[in-house]
Amino acid sequence: MAAQLADEVQFIKGVGPRWSERLANLDIKTVADLLYYFPREYEDRSQITEIRFASPGQTATFKAKVIKIDYHRIRNNFDILKISFSDDTGVINGVWFNQSYLRDKFNEGEYYLLSGKISEKNWRKYKSKDINNPVYEKLTDQNSVLNTGRIVPVYPLTEGINQRRLRKVIANALKKYLPLVKEILPDYILEKHKFPDLKTAILGMHYPKNFTHQNRSRQRLAFQEFLIFQLYSLAEKKAMAAQTGIQHKYQENQINQFLAELDFELTSAQKRVWQEIRQDMESNRIMARLLQGDVGSGKTVIAALSLLETVANGYQGIFMAPTEILAEQHYLNFKELFSDFAINIELITGSLKAAARKEVESGIKDSTIDLIIGTHALFQDKLEYYNPGLVVIDEQHRFGVEQRHTLKEKGNNPDLLIMTATPIPRSMAMLLYGDLDLSIIDELPPGRKRIATFWRRKNRRKKIYQFLLTKLAAGRQIYIVCPLIEPSEELPDLKSAEQLYQELVKGIFNDYQVALIHSSIKSAEKKEIMEKFRQGKIQVLIATTVIEVGVDVSNATIMVIENAERFGLAQLHQLRGRVGRGSKQSFCILISDAQGQEAKQRLDIMVKTNDGFKIAEADLELRGPGEFFGTRQHGIADLKVANLMTDHDLLAKSRQEAAALLDNNNWQNKYPRLAERVKKLEVKV
Ligand code: ADP
Ligand code: MG
């Protein structure tokens, strides 16, 4: 059978069954996988130094011939192999401990390349130039050296895979299979951007001639990754744009009435995004819009306006929240916001009893219900909507896109508004959500005070509680968030909500109502607790992260986070966003004995800034895009070479080229290999 890139790796010289298995641990199964397994860095061993110029402490590469082999067994379990090399300008020794088997690899009179650091100690002691454990390679033909005497690739490894052998295996793969690699990018794009062809680029990633070669290769491959991503999302966007959606008519009277009844005026950012949404809703295209706004920026009222518009047009509005508590909150919130409108609102969650559910279901089907609030339960197969006009999805970015497909299959083409408090930089949003239009609320309602944030060690607990008592006495309410529900034997240092509740309810907060809330408390009870907290009948809420997003009680002005080092930046920011929701001064106290560098940095950032954008950027930097976005969800794992943080130029170029390609209806026939890559991504995203 003719060799092909889809061959299993064991077809490569040097790869037996054992190595196949180990390579599989690195997700390398086919030859193509291996060719696209790129180095994480390079070592420049391309400059050859004359031995006479080598100074102690210097790291360098030498080309020299073996003049002497010395082997000493010092003790039973300790031996030294010392090989002397000469390049006619001087002598240098390679020294190996307990590696006697290397004796056979060297022959007197033969030439080798040798890299490493010249020992300072041996120079002081013996005035000899020695390298301990040098990298070496026999010099047969200059072109075949892999480990030294050139720019050397350094690959990420796993157990049982070593650098030297992997370099050899990849070199073997390149020799046999690189000629089979076929270009996937159009020629005109290569020419225009002066990109190397695919073969040159793959070679340039593994065994570059020089750093320019490596750099151009990386750029080309990064561009390619971006382009494939963009082609996918822009095609999606185009397909949506080609379909006819619902054309809402502006319901001026009701909208004006709603705005007049609000006890605040929209910020100018809110006004702007509302116009953007209106324009989409009033066009006959399908809206697919991402609304980005920091916690507390007032996204809910924008959702309400949009939902009112659809309902007033005679369609059903659907609002999906990520958790039951939030669905419940929004339900109450919307009931209040729409109390003067003849809008029939229902809540549908997983914990609804069968009979009640049936009733809601039929109300949805026959359109007696206008506005449906719920969790994922909103999109189960059984539910039939009468005529949905708008779906709003809170904090579930990708999910929103999936739902759009589900609804489309059901024959509906409602508008879609996805809301997120994750303030990702615009260029990244363009890549990740290229199929969505973007609206940003970049302003908080007036009068908001910065949430004063403190990081305190555990031994300051007494002081902290005294502070809390003064705030309680002033009529404020408090959240205390713990990382665990109940004490854990494995994690004895972590505060659990139950334990803290026991300590506080009869202790220092004896005079106040203290409640416990976490995910294993029954829905009905949770609901009651939240309602009481909202009414101020409970003053202290001891919770887990169930209250992470969306809870909105403006008299609650203090957030205490136990073991704050356990939480990620995004989570801390979300949690803190539960306070500072009115004009009263709010506080956030991070309790932590953090030791690790990264944890300390996180806490410092929280103390320093309230700005969600800055926090997101820091988070990205600390964790990298993969962790930040959750790789699987976004196909970011396919960005092996491209760097979302630094490759802005390439990203912009790829977007232009993707748009230009899509303008040509025939691009998939003209560039079938590119089209195939895009298809593969589609399956994953
Ligand atoms: P988020 O964007 O985090 O979902 P919310 O929509 O929950 O924020 O709004 C936070 C709080 O700010 C709510 O109590 C809301 O009533 C209030 N709010 C929203 N817009 C304004 C505004 N323009 N002026 C004053 N308060 C506002
Ligand atoms: Mg919200």
UniProtKB/TrEMBL annotation:
Report the record's Gene Ontology biological process terms: DNA recombination; DNA repair
Which SMART domains does the record associate with it? DEXDc, HELICc
The UniProt keywords, alphabetically, are: ATP-binding, DNA damage, DNA recombination, DNA repair, DNA-binding, Helicase, Hydrolase, Isomerase, Nucleotide-binding
Tell me where on the tree of life, at the top rank, the source sits.
Bacteria
GO molecular function annotation: 3'-5' DNA helicase activity; ATP binding; ATP hydrolysis activity; DNA binding
Task: Kindly give the PROSITE patterns that the UniProt entry links to this protein.
Answer: HELICASE_ATP_BIND_1, HELICASE_CTER
> What reaction does this catalyse?
Couples ATP hydrolysis with the unwinding of duplex DNA by translocating in the 3'-5' direction; ATP + H2O = ADP + phosphate + H(+)
Family, as annotated: Belongs to the helicase family. RecG subfamily.
Summary of the function given for this chain in its UniProt record: Plays a critical role in recombination and DNA repair. Helps process Holliday junction intermediates to mature products by catalyzing branch migration. Has replication fork regression activity, unwinds stalled or blocked replication forks to make a HJ that can be resolved. Has a DNA unwinding activity characteristic of a DNA helicase with 3'-5' polarity.
Protein name, per record: ATP-dependent DNA helicase RecG
Source organism (scientific name): Halanaerobium salsuginis
User: Taxonomic lineage of this organism?
Assistant: Bacteria, Bacillati, Bacillota, Clostridia, Halanaerobiales
